[in-house]
Amino acid sequence: MSFEISGPRARDGVAERDARRVRMARRATAALLCFRGLDRLVDDATLIVSELVTNAIQHSGGVRVTFTMTVRDGFLRLAVLDCMPGQPIVQDAAGDPERGRGLLLVDCLAAANHGTWGTNEDGTEVWCSLRLPSREDS
């Protein structure tokens, strides 16, 4: 899934058109996982996708976002490419801020699913991998 980022942002930092694209990415993720019999990963994967796509829209300064999802070698890999170099910053969630916890959530969900997350060398792509559930996990 690939789309151009809209122009002016709404109050919360995402234009309505872009918010619809985030919802589409979540729905596509859920549909593919259910189709593949990976229902157990739907909640965590859709939250991760929402965070990564929203971060790319809000913080990249780019004009295009591409989301990919692959299942290979026992892992689900979710990746968002925004074509703008720069490493994401994991913020300290001390206090009670309304924003800034997205990558902390991604990190926690990846760890809970025996996976990890990271970026490519120049930071244009952020990815997360989740281990596929075994038959015993289901």
What's the gyration radius in Å?
Answer: 15 Å
* Contiguous helical run count: 3
Q: Could you state the CATH homologous superfamily?
A: Histidine kinase-like ATPase, C-terminal domain
How many domain modules?
1
Q: What does this 3D model show about the protein?
A:
- With 138 residues, the protein is an alpha+beta fold.
- The chain has one domain: Heat Shock Protein 90, CATH 3.30.565.10.
- It is built from 3 helices and 5 strands, in the order βααββαββ.
- The protein has helices at residues 16-35, 42-59, 102-112, and strands spanning 2-4, 64-72, 75-81, 116-119, 125-131.
- A 5-stranded antiparallel beta sheet has the order 1-2-3-5-4, with helices on one face.
- Helix 1 (16-35) packs antiparallel against helix 2 (42-59).
- It is globular.
- The two termini are 29 Å apart.
- The mean pLDDT is 85.
Write the layout of secondary structure elements.
Blueprint: E1 2-4, H1 16-35, H2 42-59, E2 64-72, E3 75-81, H3 102-112, E4 116-119, E5 125-131
Antiparallel strand pairs: 1-2, 2-3, 3-5, 4-5
Helix pairs in contact: 1-2, 2-3
Give a short summary of the structure.
The chain is an alpha+beta fold and 138 residues long.
Keywords:
five-stranded antiparallel sheet; Heat Shock Protein 90; 5 strands; alpha+beta; 138 residues
